[in-house]
Amino acid sequence: MAAGNEPPVQSVKNVNLASIPAVSMPGLILLNGKRAGIQQAYRKLWVDNNLDAIITPGAPTTATPLDKWDSITYTMLWNFMDYPTCIIPVDCVQSGDVVDSVSHAINGERDEHNYLMYTGPEAYANAALSVQVVGMRQEDERLAQIVCQVDKILNVKHTKEHALPML
Questions:
Q1: Total domains present in the chain
Q2: Confidence band (pLDDT; 50, 70, 90) for 162?
Q3: Cα–Cα distance for residue pair 13/8, rounded to 1 Å
Q4: Residues 132-158: pLDDT tens digits?
Q5: CA-CA distance, 66 to 89, in Å (whole number)?
Q6: pTM of the entire structure?
Q7: Domain contains 160
Q8: Sign of CA dihedral 162, 163, 164, 166
Q9: Which domain, by its residues, includes 14?
Q10: For residue 45, what is the enclosing H or E element?
Q11: In angstroms, rounded to a whole number, what is the distance separating the alpha carbons of residues 63 and 92?
Q12: Residue 41 lies in a domain
């Protein structure tokens, strides 16, 4: 990224993506082999449990203000596994939403950080709340069909003209 002479994007700096060291070709081959083994294990888990899709959070928070994003944990696995995903907006922050006590952050430092990020509905007015739908590798078209069904269920207030989600 440095070779492109472009200004750094703050949110990319926040997750330190630019610091990932380069890998040699033999190292890349080794990493791809390890990833293939993990992909096989996930495929077995998927098939053995007869899964059509997995619905997960897309992030540990609502949509964040510009350049405040700093977590790739909820999407990174699926990118690594080469599984298709789609984010479906299901609601947005409302004026009556309250700040939850940081005492509820029982899962460590990152959890506490997430609780502290939300400062109230004023700073996050209309920020999207969403879910992520994950499909099996190389089954993008099937995921698109599932996403349409999940979207219809979660967003019943929308009309027939509701646009199809982008994949």
A1: 1
A2: very low
A3: 7
A4: 999 999 999 999 999 999 999 988 765
A5: 18
A6: 0.77
A7: no
A8: negative
A9: 9-154
A10: helix 25-48
A11: 9
A12: yes
